[in-house]
Amino acid sequence: MDKRIITCSAAAVGAVLLAMMMISCSQQTAPPAAPQQATPSVVLPPWGPQHDRNAPQPPVVDPGMASTQAEVGKPPSDATVLFNGKDLSNWESVKGGPAGWKVGKGYFEVVPHTGDIKTKQAFGDCQLHVEWAAPSPPHGEDQDRGNSGVYLMTLYEVQVLDSYQSKTYPDGQAAAIYGQYTPLVNACRPPGQWQSYDIVFHGPRFDAAGNVVRPATYTVLHNGVLVQDHVTVLGLTDGDHQPYKQTPAKMPLKLQDHSHPVRFRNIWIRELAEM
Ligand code: MG
Predict the structure, then answer these.
(1) Which of 67, 182, 236, 253 is deepest in the core (most CB within 10 A)?
(2) Distance, CA 259 to ligand 1 centroid (Å)?
(3) pTM of this prediction?
(4) pLDDT higher than 90, residue 80
(5) What is the Å distance from ligand 1's center to 148 Cα?
């Protein structure tokens, strides 16, 4: 008799135990398990061995200082400052010629119907910091209330809107990727108060035929709160579901004149290495 069966019989002193042992026996007589799959190999960082003290150190950056309502912050030391609080020398009208918006003490403001403005320099993949304030007292409602916009690469809008205790369609409220993604939460401050957008943007890539080989992505923090978590841009944000159009990898940053005197301050950008 099979030695394992003898072992089972000896252990059969109670029904429960017997059942358990029978299960055990059946497992022992089951066909051998398939060989285990090989453990995936460890992914090594591209720069060499782990914990290598001779590996290149990251550049040192003075992180600057965050703004308060009363005081404008200081950008990181490696940022390109797009508004220094004094003039619009880094900007121009999208219609051509100088930017038609007005500069106040430490900020600039949309002058309705003068047109959108854009940076003279083009940018692609980047980290962008923008502060804005909706008009106070508030005026209008829905989309007609403190409306402007931050367009990375001129084409992809992060909505600027007074969404503080004011409703509109969710994918068009403040911090929406306009017409595509509702923000995860509504982190709006009241009109008149300064609000911040911290944006990480990776632009689209196209092949020679103009096909999208890598769509754009947005991560957005509104007043320090995550509102867009690495969302994939579906196409142009103006109009209804407009497909991508082929562009260079870098395009100017655009701010929208939506006929409301929205204010901006402390705008800086850090270009990211190509990925
Ligand atoms: Mg807008």
Answers:
(1) 253
(2) 10
(3) 0.84
(4) yes
(5) 4
